[in-house]
Amino acid sequence: MSTDTPVQPKIRIDSVHKSYVIDGRQQEVLAGVDLTVNEGEFVSIIGPSGCGKSTLLNIIAGLDQPDSGNIELSSENSDKHSGTASGRLGRTGYMQQKDLLLPWRSVLDNTILGLELRGVPRKQAREQAMEFTEAFGLQGFEHHYPYALSGGMRQRAAFLRTMLMGQDVVLLDEPFGALDALTRVQMQEWLLQLWESMNKTIVLITHDVDEALLLSDRVYLLTARPGRVTLVLDVDLPRPRHYDLVTSPEFGVLKARLMEPLRSQIQSIQSAGRSTGQTA
Ligand SMILES: Nc1ncnc2c1ncn2[C@@H]1O[C@H](COP(=O)(O)OP(=O)(O)OP(=O)(O)O)[C@@H](O)[C@H]1O
Ligand SMILES: [Mg+2]
Hints:
- There is one protein chain.
- The radius of gyration is 19 Å and the shape is globular.
- The model has no long low-confidence stretch (mean pLDDT 89).
- 35% of the residues lie in helices and 23% in strands.
- The strands form two sheets. A six-stranded mixed beta sheet has the order 5-6-7-3-8-9, with helices on both faces. A three-stranded antiparallel beta sheet has the order 2-1-4, covered by helices on one side.
- It has two domains: 1-92 and 171-187 and 200-263, P-loop containing nucleotide triphosphate hydrolases (Rossmann fold); 100-166, no CATH class.
- The longest helix is centred in the C-terminal third of the chain and has 27 residues, at 249-275.
- It has helices at residues 53-61, 85-88, 107-111, 113-117, 122-130, 151-164, 181-198, 209-215, 249-275; strands at residues 9-22, 25-38, 42-46, 68-73, 93-95, 169-173, 201-206, 218-222, 229-234.
- Helix 8 packs antiparallel against helix 9.
- With 280 residues, the protein is an alpha/beta fold.
- The protein binds adenosine-5'-triphosphate (ATP) and magnesium ion.
- Adenosine-5'-triphosphate (ATP) is lined by residues 20, 22, 29, 49-55, 97.
C-alpha cells in the first residue's frame, strides 16, 4: 500500500467480551479482544482450538453479539461505521469454517447464492460467475455437483461464492483446514495472487504458522480460552510473495517470534490438562 494515502481502518474492535454457557456454566470465551484491520490489509488470527476465533468472526459479521465492547465495520456499501450486529449483517464476505456448499446445487449455482440473495436474477448471476470460473480453477466443472469435486475445488467454489458477494471486507475461517499439505500450499499461493490483484481487506483464521506469516501483513496471536490478544506481529516481508519465502532467514526469525509464545501456551494447556486429570 502506498505510504502517502491515509490508512483507513475497515474493522476496529475494542475490548470485546463474550461468554457462553459451556458444560452447564457461563464461561468467558473472549476476554477483552482489541484488533484493527486497515483498508487493503491481510490480517491473520491464530490461536489454540476453542479460544474464540470463530466467535470473533461471527461477531464481526454480525451473526453474534458481544456482551460488551465496541466493533466498527466500515464497508464500501455504506460510509457510516456499523456498530450494531444487525448493522453489520451482509456487509462482509464470510466464508465459514465449513465450506457449506449446497449438495443439490451445481458448482455454478452454489457460487451465485450471494448474488441471488441480493436480488440479482439467476441468469444474470450465472453470467457474472462464469467470468470468474477460470481464475478460480473451476472451468469445465461449473455444472458438476459438489460431491464430484476435489477438496481444493470445493474450497475454490466456496471462495468464489464469498468473493461474488461483492464486499470489500472478506472473512475466511480456516479455508484450507481440510486440505492435504500439497493442495494447501497451492491454494495459499493462489490466494496470494488473487488478493494482490483484488484490492480486498482480508481477515483469515488459521492454525498454521507458516500460512499466517506467508499471507499476512500482521498476525494476531490469541491465548487459550478465554481468548485475548497476546502478540501482534507485523510481517514486513516484501511482496509479491511466493511459497519459497518460508525457507528464508527473515521468515525464520518471524516464525521463532510467533512460535515462542505459542509453545508456552501449549505447555500451559498441557499442564492444566494434567492437573485436572485430562489427557490431550
Ligand atoms: N453459540 C454457542 N453456544 C455455546 N457455546 C459456544 C457457541 N459458539 C461457540 N461456543 C463455544 O465457545 C468456545 C469457542 O468456540 P469457537 O468456535 O469460537 O472456537 P475456535 O477458536 O474457533 O476453535 P477452533 O479452532 O476449534 O475452530 C468453544 O468452547 C465453543 O464450544
Ligand atoms: Mg473455529
